[in-house]
Amino acid sequence: LYQGWVREEDGRYFNKPNAAIFYTKEGQIIDAYEPYTFEGYTFGRDQAIVAVEFSLDRGKTWARFDVDGGEIGRWTYWHYTFAPEQEGAYVLYVRGVAASGAVSEEPAKMLVNAK
Known about the structure:
By secondary structure, the protein is mostly beta strands. 0% of the residues lie in helices and 49% in strands. The protein starts with a strand and ends with a strand.
């Protein structure tokens, strides 16, 4: 069971750090072969965010991008641009990386359709 962001059984934060995708709607149609930019934020609560990681293969591999200036208690803005190489469905996974090395337990996920 969870109360807010703290796990009852051990008192630690759930999904710390966390990540969110903004400004894109689930199932949104994007142009195939053209660059599309996703945007969002990640938050480490009592730890600074040092990197954001992205996956387009459902978490099998991750591309890491280091963050300069991540601050404790502040949301960190990120953006990620990719160009779909063919028409079809794509799912972007995003996770934050905190100064301790912890990564998001539940990455943010967003499905888009390239046409």
